[in-house]
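Collaboration report, partner site 2.

Our partner group contributed sequences for two proteins of shared interest, and the home lab folded both. The records are reproduced in the order in which they were received, starting with the first partner submission.
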Amino acid sequence: MEGKPHIATLILAAGASTRMGQPKQLLPWKSHTLLEHTIAQAKEVSSEVIVVLGAHLAQIKPIVGNVPCIENEHWEQGMGTSIAKGIQYLAAKKHIDAVLVLLGDQPLLDADYLEQLIRAYQKTGSGIVATRYSKKNGVPAIFDRTFFPALQELDGDHGARRLLEAQKNHLVSLSPEGRAVDIDTLETYHKIKDNEA
């Protein structure tokens, strides 16, 4: 592989936001919506950004702009199906060396943190660079192309967790230093938003 690897970014935003009671992708965040903010952060580190949508697609798609959208018709079956759908799309693009998978509801994990993941991938030569949580590894995570077949076979609500667990002795993980907060409830949203104001 000559030069810098070409890393595409896959944003998972297909969920129904059941606990939120409204599409969290559309919640205001700074001068944009939560999903627009995530897209903007991704664009700072990646020239190829793709969004996977599912629930509330008709409401959310207009805010995505010129970023390619993939519809996951099986979004109700869980995050794994969204990853599989996105990787299926990316696998056909031969110039892509790896994928950065991130969620649309972790606004504190900004471009600086994503850049840290990319630098670790480039420097260590590891096939996976993940985010370290208290007892497990998770996304945002970078997966080398060699893992695309395994990612395409994901289903259910575990996302890439099983793959990360199986590879835990062969991956590099970074600490998000308290920034890996999922916005799942209005209470969490307002608390984080107030702190960021």
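Second partner submission, folded after the first:
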Amino acid sequence: MIKEFKEFISRGNVIDLAVGVIIGGAFTSIVKSLVDYLINPFIGLFIGGIDFSDLIFKVNGATFKVGSFINAVINFLIIAFVVFLLVKFVNKFLIRKKAEEAAPVVAPEVELLEEIRDLLKTQEK
């Protein structure tokens, strides 16, 4: 059993997953601070710093904090949009980098055949 666990833990997928979770946690705190300290105050300049956290209603002694839920939804949408923009930027950078790296290598035979084809086309006209 210990041997199986050691094999399981030593697999690359498990280690990659663990690294992903750790990096994801760190990335979450970065995005949350970006949203809390930069984006929300900037949006607050335009909408007057609206805070829904005081919006509640009570039914038979039960308190429903609808405003806090609305604030959480707004923060989620902002964070999701920021992550979308970051992923889009990173993907654009990676695609450009891959395109530069993957310049097509043409075999000399193919290049020669293309030249012959082009010469034949010019002779037909």
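Feedback sent to the partner group on the second submission included the following. The chain has four helices and two strands. The mean pLDDT is 79.
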